[in-house]
Design a protein that fits this description.
Layout: E1 9-13, H1 20-34, E2 40-45, H2 50-57, E3 62-66, H3 83-89, E4 93-96, H4 99-105, H5 109-121, E5 125-130, H6 134-138, H7 142-153, E6 166-169, H8 183-201, H9 203-206, E7 210-213, H10 222-226, E8 233-236, H11 243-253
Parallel strand pairs: 1-2, 1-8, 2-3, 3-4, 4-5, 5-6, 6-7
C-alpha cells in the first residue's frame, strides 16, 4: 500500500449469504472491531440485506455496498436493480464484473463497462473486478488479459470519475478455492492493472487509483498481501462472513 497516494479499502463481498436478520447480527458484531480502522471499510451485501445493513451500520465507519447493478436506469429487466434504486437506499459502493457474475451470469467486458458507467452516473463507487483463469495464466496471458479487461472496464470513464473507481484484481483460480496468489503474484497482477491505467490516463493518475487484491485473502495472509506496494486493500469473500477474521484483515490494512 501507499497511503500517501491512495486510500486503502477493505470490502467484504458476502455473495449469496445472510438473511437481513443475520446481517444485522454480524454487522453489530463487526462495528466495535473495526471502529478504529485507518482504511475504508465496506460491506457489499445481497440486495435484500441492504436496508437492514444500512440501518445497523448507521453512525459507524462501515459503508454499505451492493454486489451488482444493471446498466439501464429502468425497463423490462425482470430481477435486475438500477443504480438509482441503490443510491436512494443509501448504498455507496457496488461490485461490478465479479468472476462469478462473468462465469455464471454471462457478464462480458462490455456489460462490465456499461454497469461501471451507470454506477458512476448515479454517484456510486464501483469496485471493478478483473482477473485471469488458471489456463490463461499458464499460457502466459496474464498481463495481456488484465490490461485488456482494465481498459475495457474503464472505457469512457473520465479522469475525474476515476477518482471514485476501485479496481479489484481477483485471479479466477483463487476465488473460493482456498488457493491464494502469492504476495508477489498479487502485487504483479495489481501492477499490470495500474500500468493499464497509466497507459490511458498517465502515471500520476494511475498512482492515485486504489487497486485491491481479491482471491482468498484471509486473516492469516492479509499482512503479507497488503505490505506490497500495489495492493491497496482487499475484496474479501469468505472471511468477511466472520467478524473476527474480517477485523484482522482491516487491522492489517490500517497499519
Amino acid at each position: 500500500m501507499n497511503k500517501a497516494l491512495r486510500k486503502a479499502v477493505i470490502a467484504g463481498n458476502w455473495k449469496m449469504n445472510k438473511t437481513p436478520a443475520e446481517a444485522k447480527v454480524l454487522i453489530e458484531e463487526m462495528k466495535p472491531l473495526v471502529a478504529d480502522a485507518d482504511c475504508e471499510v465496506v460491506l457489499c451485501v445481497p440486495f435484500v440485506d441492504i436496508p437492514a445493513a444500512i440501518e445497523v451500520a448507521k453512525g459507524s465507519n462501515i459503508k454499505i455496498g451492493a454486489e451488482n447493478v444493471h446498466f439501464k436506469a429502468s425497463g423490462a429487466y425482470t430481477g435486475e436493480i438500477a443504480a438509482d434504486m441503490l443510491k436512494e437506499l443509501g448504498v455507496e459502493y457496488v461490485v461490478i464484473g465479479h468472476s462469478e457474475r462473468r462465469q455464471y451470469f454471462g457478464e462480458t467486458d462490455q456489460t462490465v463497462n456499461l454497469r461501471t458507467l451507470a454506477a458512476l452516473g448515479a454517484g456510486l463507487k464501483p469496485i471493478v473486478c478483473v482477473g485471469e483463469t488458471l489456463e490463461q495464466r499458464e499460457l502466459g496471458y496474464t498481463e495481456t488479459l488484465l490490461k485488456f479487461q482494465t481498459k475495457m472496464a474503464l472505457t469512457n470513464v473520465t479522469a475525474e470519475q476515476l477518482k471514485d473507481v476501485v479496481v479489484a484484481y481477483e485471479p479466477v483460480w483463487a476465488i473460493g478455492t482456498g488457493v491464494t496468489a502469492t504476495a508477489e503474484q498479487a502485487d504483479e497482477g495489481n501492477g499490470y492493472c495500474r500500468a493499464a491505467i497509466a497507459e490511458v490516463y498517465g502515471t500520476d493518475v494511475a498512482e492515485t487509483v486504489t487497486i485491491q487484491y481479491g482471491g482468498s485473502m484471509n486473516a492469516k495472509n492479509a499482512d503479507e498481501l497488503v505490505s506490497k506496494v500495489n495492493v491497496d486493500g482487499g475484496l474479501i469473500g469468505g472471511a468477511s462472513l466472520k467478524a473476527e477474521d474480517f477485523s484482522i484483515i482491516v487491522k492489517a490494512a490500517s497499519k
